[in-house]
Amino acid sequence: MAAWHDDWDDELVGDEGPQECDLAGDSDDYATVACPHCGAEISELAEQCPHCGDWITPGGRPRRSPWFVLLAILVLVSFFWWLLR
User: Fold this and answer.
1) How far is CA 46 from CA 2, 49, 62, 70, in A?
2) Is pTM beyond 0.85 here?
3) Which among 16, 37, 45, 47 has the fewest CB atoms less than 10 Å away?
4) pLDDT tens across 15-36, in order?
5) C-alpha dihedral sign at 64, 67, 70, 74
């Protein structure tokens, strides 16, 4: 059986050890923010709230309600209908 050897070049890897940023506290803990929909505390890296299931929109702004969009369309249609009468 052949003897095991590694292919690492010790000059490239070096023995510098961990960097200063690796030793600075709890680097695995991420900041939390409030979900814009339900207000629960979630990770700032979350794409979807684990509590309410809503997707987190970029910029933290909540989505518009479908009722708001429908109302806006009805107002616009009514306005144009009134203009063309």
Assistant:
1) 49, 7, 15, 29
2) no
3) 16
4) 566 666 666 655 556 788 888 8
5) negative
